[in-house]
Amino acid sequence: MTRLAVDGGSPVRTQPLPTVLVPAGRTFGAEERAAVLEVLDSGVLNASCGGPWLAELEATMAGLHGIAHAVASSSGTAALHLAVAAVDPEPGDEVITTPLTDWGTIAAILAQNAVPVFADVDPLTGNLDPASVEACLSPRTRAILVVHLFGAAAPVAELRTLADRAGVPLIEDCAQAYLARPAPAAPPVGTYGAVGCFSLQQYKHVTAGDGGLCITADPAHAERMRLFADKAWPRDEGRFHRFLALNYRMTNLTAAVAAVQLRRLPEVVARRRRLAARLLAAVGDLPGVDLPDQPELHAWWVLPLIVDGGNERWATALSAEGIPAVAGWLESPVYLYPALTERRTYGQSAFPLTSPPARRDWTYGPGLCPRAERLVGDTLVVLPWNENYTDADVDDIATALTKVAGALTP
Predict the structure, then answer these.
(1) pLDDT tier, 1 (very low <50, low <70, confident <90, very high otherwise)
(2) Which residues are catalytic (predicted)?
(3) Of 31, 59, 251, 363, which is most buried with the most CB atoms under 10 A?
């Protein structure tokens, strides 16, 4: 058996792979530079004061998804807050969501004075389990907020059925899953719920450094989100403010870069899918490892592995082979973060997690979602993925996976 690099053997790879933090791992080019200079030369950096880029960005996003409305904002977290604000929960209302997500998903719920209720996940995908969601429904449920994790579409048809039956909207967090689809010929994610939310942060498929986008078929949701992003200021009517809202405006500089990047999105996703298909063909059925299938549906934000156990050992071994890998992705499910375990929300009040306004005092601790906890602590390994990998890069990843699986699987 070939000796692992972590045990003193020779690594598969000694050169770093392209990442989203270096030019070789991004798709910036002359068009982005020209767009930025156009904005600077115009002297108008605030999109609410004029300029074409914000309108182009929103029109392109809506067109890519075959939906009527797109609303830009300053970040992916802002986009999620717009979506929660659009469904307008009462203080203490509940939003069912996943424990495996960025904190922005939860911050958007708490910032609108609603309570995050955590359903457990599928042990092979990390996406919400509809049966667990159904068990979390209550008379105070105001929305279901699903995250399409790692680039794989969550079971949105089942979740939409649950939401419709409960009479509540479904919100989709698509930050990691641009153009992912739940089935062949199905519409892309983001179009199944009341609002779909996307991020333009540095680590996403396309980026403007930061920025967010929401899509919706509902003109009332679109209007409320536009207002919420601009302090509820109806600029065509006068200088007053309709309701409590924040400044989540996107700048023209961000919109210009994002608009050009969004033109590149279909090709970026297509390249990630082609490279993933090459990897899956090369590794076949690795013992002790579950990999995503149907590469043509997945968005391949990262490459998630589900191993039989010992994810720290897997991540250490792969990293030693020259293939960066992280065990668990998160340090813990988000409900174990101090903000929730210590209920640090608004001063010392624990609002809105207390009764009233909630139906009961909400506390969060270990054991709440066992499958999510096992993924983070034992079975999930995440590798970065990039559209600018070469075939040789992918072959090295396949070689390293095969080598490590052979050594660590009994």
Answers:
(1) low
(2) 204
(3) 251
Tokens 């023209």 locate to 252
Residue found by looking up tokens 């082609």 in the block: 274
Separation of alpha carbons 63 and 58, rounded Å: 9
**Contact between residue 76 and residue 198 where contact means Cβ atoms under 8 Å apart:** yes
- pLDDT band at 48, cuts 50/70/90? confident
How confident is the model over 336-364, as pLDDT tens digits? 999 999 999 999 999 999 999 999 999 99
Cα separation of 142 and 94, whole Å? 6
204 is annotated as an active-site residue: yes
Q: What is the pLDDT of residue 70?
A: 98
* Predicted TM-score (pTM) of this structure: 0.97
Tell me the domains of the chain and their CATH numbers.
30-262 (3.40.640.10)
Q: Which of 204, 249, 298, 403 is catalytic?
A: 204
Instruction: Judge whether residue 156 has pLDDT over 90.
Output: yes
- Residue 1 is encoded by which pair of tokens? 């058996």
Answer for the pair 271, 88: CB distance below 8 angstroms, yes or no.
no
Residue 100 to residues 123, 148, 196, Cα–Cα distance (Å): 12, 10, 18
What would the pLDDT profile of 102-138 be if each residue is shown by its tens digit? 999 999 999 999 999 999 999 999 999 999 999 999 9
